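Service request form, structural biology core

Requester: graduate student, group of Dr. S.
Request type: structure prediction, single chain
Budget code: on file
Notes: please return the result as structure tokens.

Sequence provided:
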Amino acid sequence: MLELTMASVTGADAGATAGMLMADAPSDPGAVLRVGRDRAVCRLATPDDWLFVSRVHLEFLCGPDGTWQVTWLHGSRPEPSAEVRLTLAGAPTQPVPYGGTVKLPAGGSGEIVVLDRTGPNSVNVGFYHEA
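Core staff response, request fulfilled:
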């Protein structure tokens, strides 16, 4: 099972946990969880006017062996309006490339942060992959 928690944070609210959203999915091959502005497609949706987040920004996908990966999907622009950073428990923060995919460790946890390049807003997505 993959469990996600998401908080949309403005500069003034840094560190706040109010408004946190949660989603989970079993580790079945082909299971998908998405994060973005499009509420029809994404289980975790950001505010509509946060244009630094694509309609579908992050896609968590369970592979055939029950392990999860996250992909920063290409949006409609050639250059992104955001930065995406991944922190795994006990490891340094690393950037996720635009259009890149990172495997999540089985039984691991961490956080993915989508940062607005032009302002103080961020989307913080915590994850726990239950082995």
